[in-house]
Write a structure and sequence with these properties.
8 strands; 8-stranded antiparallel sheet; alpha+beta
């Protein structure tokens, strides 16, 4: 009976260690939280052909995760999307693995809370500047329909 308990204990310990090793392997190698503030400006033409403007301001914490198996993930309260990192500088002093993120336009619009059904067909890629000395703000314009545009001014605080 003592041998059975010992074998059970050893198997239990081995299973616990394997589970712990699997969790460590699945953990992100880099987690980078940052503040994202943006303004959404809706412009278009009303029935009298006057320009109609409407603006909303938002701010929240986003997270950039670099995982060995999944690549680069951009997480917000509205969802998670995959991104591709690009290094635009050949400077050997720049040790960061990337300074630009390439993101699908439709997916980025969804992260800003712009509904998919209100967007015109999208599909081009957008470059999101992620350098610490990068621009203070980045502007993106999404066409919602022939008379309606959504402009997003994004401020990243690294």
């Amino acid at each position: 009976m003592m041998i059975v308990k010992s074998i059970f204990f050893v198997l239990s310990l081995a299973l616990t260690l394997l589970c712990a090793a699997a969790e460590v392997k699945a953990a992100p190698s880099l987690v980078f939280p940052f503040s994202a503030n943006w303004e959404i400006l809706r412009s278009g033409f009303n029935n009298t052909l006057d320009v109609a403007l409407e603006a909303d301001t938002y701010g929240e914490e986003w997270t950039l995760e670099v995982r060995p198996d999944d690549g680069i993930l951009l997480r917000t309260p509205r969802g998670t999307i995959k991104a591709v990192g690009v290094k635009s500088s050949d400077d050997p002093a720049e040790r960061a693995p990337f300074d630009l993120l390439v993101i699908n336009e439709k997916q980025l619009a969804q992260l800003f809370g712009i509904q998919e059904d209100s967007l015109a067909p999208l599909g081009r890629e957008i470059f999101l500047d992620f350098r610490s000395e990068g621009p203070e703000e980045q502007t993106f314009t999404f066409k919602a329909n022939p008379k309606y545009f959504v402009s997003v001014v994004l401020h990243l605080q690294l």
